[in-house]
Fold this sequence. Notes:
Elements: H1 2-21, H2 28-41, H3 44-70, H4 78-86, H5 92-102, H6 111-140, H7 148-187, H8 191-219, H9 232-254, H10 258-262, H11 266-295
Helix pairs in contact: 2-11, 3-6, 3-11, 6-7, 6-11, 7-8, 8-9, 9-11
Amino acid sequence: MAAEQADKARMSLRDEWREVWALGGLRVSTLARRVWDEINADDVWGYAAQLAYYFLFSLFPFFIFLAALLAYIPIPDLMEQIMALLGQLLPGTVLDMVKDNVLELVTQPRGGLLSFGILLALWTAASGIAAMTDSLNRAYGVKEGRAFWKVRLVAVSLTIGLAALMLASMALLIFGSELGSLVAAKVGLGAAFDTAWEFARWPIIVFLMMFGAALIYYFAPDVEQEWRWITPGSVFAVLAWILMSLVFTWYVDNFGNYSVTYGSIGAVIVLLTWMYFTGFFLLVGGEINAEIEHAATSGKAPGKKRLPK
Length: 309
């Protein structure tokens, strides 16, 4: 009897998974139209601006913390390697601004900066997650019912988890080749494994990013959901963000001369614009998940917090 119930539960989860990836029975054009309507109704444009503000204020405290932390790690030119990695996604003017304000912090260990940087970065980034929570609650049509301290605790926990995933992704990008060579030597696979790792680490990094988005979509809104490692919304958010970053960087580096219009703060405007689109695509991913769940037979109706039993 118990085995039959377990089989039914597995079949139910499988059916729900298929329904989610079938977009809740919606055509792509119908889903796109519904998401567009909700983007405007839920003021995603305004919430994206809030996120850009909080991202900007948390960025440099995070780099202060990172720079102070790297001073205790005996790896030469580690910050330069991180900056070179960021240069693949950020316009040159933004990268130069970040370098000018951060690289001088790595010359010696700074315990005070380590504690100050992590506290300030945690608070401002958690405020951004809290704003994201408000936006996702609107996507599901619910009002926040958790106590303030619970919302803030979830925001801080998500901030720490996302920071760990980001550092793991950066470590894979920077040290992926060395890790691949080390593993290949240990298991005796030679150059074949090393070559395969060069290609495999990129899907792993993309998966970590999608997993981070899935964490936000699962824990941030005040609704009950089934856990899924990857969702249509997280896939859209990450792929759209990567494409946006590449196109935006190419445009700014080749055609956008923001210094003519904004003068010395042109790099800040470029950074804010990039962060605005980052927040926007994250929120749109949440809207996609919400619309699919509202349309799916196994999901919730708008305004409902609990899944049907």
